[in-house]
Amino acid sequence: MTPTSRIIQGLMRVSGKSEEDLASLIAYDLDHGIRVFDTADCYGESEALLGHVLSKHPEYREKMFIQTKCAVRFSHNGSSYYDLSKEHILSAVDASLSKLGIPYVDRLLLHRPDIFLDPKEIQEAFVELHASGKVKSFGVSNFPKETLEYLLNAVSFPIEVNQVEFGLGHLPLVSEPLNNNLDRGDSLYRTGELFYYLKAKGIALQAWSPFQKGYFGGSIFDRERFPELNRALGELADKYHTRPASIAAAFILALGEEVSLVTGSMDPIHVQECLDGLNVPLSKEDWYFLYKEAGANLP
User: Fold this and answer.
1) pLDDT tens for residues 183-194?
2) CA 259 distance to own-chain centroid
């Protein structure tokens, strides 16, 4: 794994922000040890805005580890679809580099599995991108175990990361192994025990939407909707002399050095809450307490 911060600055929500706002956020991140910046070609103006900032602050680039993604495309009527053909991967990277105004990205993630994906084509694309110097390393996002295994059997480059949704509002990644062989919903085979598969393969986990309920179902810090979880977060925040968001971050980060958190916040205050989570020595007992207060089953 690249030696970078375990807190990743996500830039999905940057569209609509000013260049000055983004430049200020990047400066804050770099000053506080955040080195990885995550974007994608489907994140609106994210790549272009980041490119404008880098053109005015070229000194930032050497301190940044930039990863972008490709696969999500939009038809003429705005409908989305996925494309991991060699042709699209190559053209998408060229388009991203043009918007970013840089000669290479540090990592390219395949954003979503394309049901038509051909691992041999992907291998060919990776070879060309790496040989040309346009992409330094590779990863995936939202890939289940079997699709990832299918890809790994064909590509010669390490798949360094898998970026998936995970946090107190979305727990299948850990509730599946914890509820194995039970006749209840928590034991459904949703992820194929992806958590331990990534560990076994040495593939780092990047947790996106760490503070959302389900698939963009709102903040877990909504006290009216999730009173038990917020009481638990508040109790542990008092215990560890920190804030509830830092406890929620610590819940994710406690799972190992190979686990990183992608914060989508554009507010340095909230970014700092994630950073503070790195310093919370959350006990195993407290981790399971949070897990259960989030509504997950522990047999």
Assistant:
1) 766 656 667 789
2) 10
